[in-house]
Design goal:
The chain has 120 residues and is mainly alpha-helical. The protein is 69% helix and 0% strand. The longest helix has 34 residues.
Length: 120
């Protein structure tokens, strides 16, 4: 796994003369780092969050950015005002249809009229 180039670099560092800490200090630092690293086991939730945190955050960012860009595009281009308007007499509001239909059914004339008009 260690390449030849890495071995040469390691040899150069080993052979270099320079200030080095006492071996006792090195050992104390290594022992402290090993105690901290093995201090406690991580809960299962931490592994899940670490594994999926970045992809979920990225997906949320893309979704919010796309939604905002679409909203700005629609507002700037006027797409919401470009929809054709229905003629005034073409359709009645839902309240009128249900109220009128109920009144005709009570009078007994609603069903015959709707059959003569055909599909809406």
């Amino acid at each position: 796994m260690i390449e030849r180039r890495d071995e040469e670099l390691s040899r150069i560092y080993r052979d270099a003369d320079g200030p080095r800490p006492q071996q006792r200090v090195d050992d104390n630092i290594l022992a402290a780092s090993q105690r901290v690293a093995g201090a406690g086991a991580r809960p299962a939730g931490a592994r899940f969050a670490r594994r999926w945190g970045t992809p979920v955050a990225l997906a949320a960012t893309v979704l919010v950015t796309f939604t905002l860009a679409l909203m700005v595009f629609e507002r700037e281009s006027g797409l919401d005002t470009m929809a054709p308007k229905a003629p005034a007499g073409a359709r009645r509001p839902v309240g009128e249809i249900s109220a009128g239909g109920a009144a005709k059914r009570r009078a007994g004339t609603g069903h015959a009229e709707s059959a003569s008009r055909g599909p809406a």
